[in-house]
Amino acid sequence: MTFFYEFSALSHYKLPIATLYAPQFLDEKLKIETFIRRDFNLLNRYGFGISYRNFGFFWYSINVEEEFVNLFSIGISLLSIGSNAIYEYPNRINFGLGFHREFLNFSICAYTLINRFSYFCTFSEYKSAFFGFDIFLEKGYEMEYKIFFSYKLNQTSSISIGYGTNTNGFSIGYRYKFLIFNYFYHSYLGDSFGVRLYYEI
């Protein structure tokens, strides 16, 4: 997999990394994001993205020993419809399409990356709380289910937790101002930690 094992469209809701796998969530604000992670003493992950006025760009890199995988994505969102082009260096390009609609007190969304994977999600926001559920299907693999919950403690901090059946693992996050700290647990690979810098106007 070249995407985060803990990936959920909901965990990256309206962040620049949405340019990769949830471009329908890009919005009008200027946002900048960068991160670094080391997973299970096996993988190094890096990323940088920027989004503004429904456009976004993101670079995502995975390093395993001497091998690098680099992804570059350009995305756009108009009228709750998002599309993106993803270039996997040096010789593969792919395209994705997604949508986001409000329905009663819930929102629904869907996305597909051609010949790779698709997901459907539903979520609801109420005051300081956000809860969502998505169904994820990668080509050649069984269907997976993910849940995500976050709660805004105050104007500068929030907590989040997510669980996915693909790893029987979970993630916990804490955000303070422009810093986001994450802990990830994988059922057989163990523990992992990450830090993000995130800024928006």
List the topology elements.
Blueprint: H1 18-21, E1 31-39, E2 43-52, E3 55-64, E4 67-78, E5 81-89, E6 92-103, E7 106-113, E8 117-126, E9 129-138, E10 144-152, E11 157-164, E12 169-176, E13 179-186, E14 190-200
Antiparallel strand pairs: 1-2, 1-14, 2-3, 3-4, 4-5, 5-6, 6-7, 7-8, 8-9, 9-10, 10-11, 11-12, 12-13, 13-14
What can you see in these coordinates?
Helix content is 2%, strand content 67%. The chain has 201 residues and is mostly beta strands. It has a single domain, classed as monomeric porin ompg (Porin). The protein has a 14-stranded antiparallel barrel. Strand 9 and strand 10 form a beta hairpin. The N terminus is likely disordered.
Helix content: under 10%
CATH class: Mainly Beta
- The CATH architecture term is Beta Barrel
Q: Biggest sheet: strands side by side, in what order?
A: 1-2-3-4-5-6-7-8-9-10-11-12-13-14
Shape: globular
CATH topology grouping: Porin
H-E string: HEEEEEEEEEEEEEE
Mean pLDDT: 87
Domain module count: 1
How far the N terminus sits from the C terminus, by CA atoms, comes to 33 Å
The CATH superfamily is identified as: monomeric porin ompg
Low-confidence stretches: 1-5
Structural class assignment: mainly beta
Q: How many helical elements?
A: 1
User: What's the total count of β strands?
Assistant: 14
* Strand content bin: over 45%
For the largest beta-sheet, the strand count, sense and barrel status come to:
14 strands, antiparallel, barrel
Instruction: Report the C-alpha radius of gyration, rounded.
Output: 16 Å
